[in-house]
Each structure stands twice: as C-alpha cells, then as structure tokens.
Amino acid sequence: MSKKSEEFFRIMLEFLPSTGNGYEKSIESYGEVLETVIIENIFMPEIIKLLSENRNIKLLESIFDYFEEVSNCKDMHLINVFSVTVLESLGNDKTILGVAQEYMGPKTMQLQLEADRALGRS
Questions:
Q1: b/e per residue, 35-52, with b = 16+ CB within 10 A?
Q2: Residue 74 carries which DSSP code?
C-alpha cells in the first residue's frame, strides 16, 4: 500500500471514528488492509448515511474537500481505488449523488463522471 493510501485510511478514520472497529475487524479477518473492501463496506456506508441525512454539513465539507485533494494527487493507485470505490458508490443512487455533487470540487466531479461512464451509467 502506498504512503498516500496509508494517509487516506488514517484521514478517513479521523473523519469517521465510528468506523474504527470495522476497520480493525476487516484487517483481522483478511490478515491485511484490503483497500476496496474497507472503503466500500466500512467507510462508504457511513458517508452515504451522512449524505442521506445532509445535516452534518461541516463534516461533509471537510470530507469532500479532502476528496478533492485526493482527486488532484499524483498517486494513480489511490486515484484508481478512490474512483472504483468512493465515486462508483456515490453514483449508485442518483439522490445521494445529487447531494454529494453539492460538496464535490471540480476534479472530484470530473472523476465521478468518468467512473459513471466506465460503468456505462452516463
């Protein structure tokens, strides 16, 4: 796992401390950090819940500001994992995606559209 990926997980755990137990259990179960499994099964349900409630605006702004930073980083591995987990998950529900787009920066929006196109959704 790259340094940028390690940083991503550390920051996501700071944003979503309630996911810490699930994160640790996943590592115990699989014997390693399976990036896509943790993002899709542990982080994204929490982010989707936050978006569906659309109440914790400061946290959502912070998360999506960080997503914009990730979207602009040079670590292609992290960008690929981010695209196929976070951005594809957001595109699974048009209502959730609509709320998420209110928080997305331009590069995150571009990558999300590309992720949808890759799935044949646009």
A1: beebbbebbbebbbebbe
A2: S
Q: Which tens digits make up the pLDDT trace of 52-69?
A: 999 999 999 999 999 999
Measured in residues, the chain has a length of 122
Residue written as token pair 């982080």? 43
Confidence (pTM): 0.93
114 φ/ψ angles, rounded to the nearest 5 degrees: -65, -40
9: nearest Cα among 105, 100, 78, 99: 78
Cα gap 103→31, rounded to integer Å: 35
Neighbour count for residue 29 (Cβ, 10 Å):
10
Neighbours of 100 (CB within 10 A): 27
Alpha-carbon separation of residue 23 from 19, 20, 51, 91 (angstroms): 6, 5, 21, 23
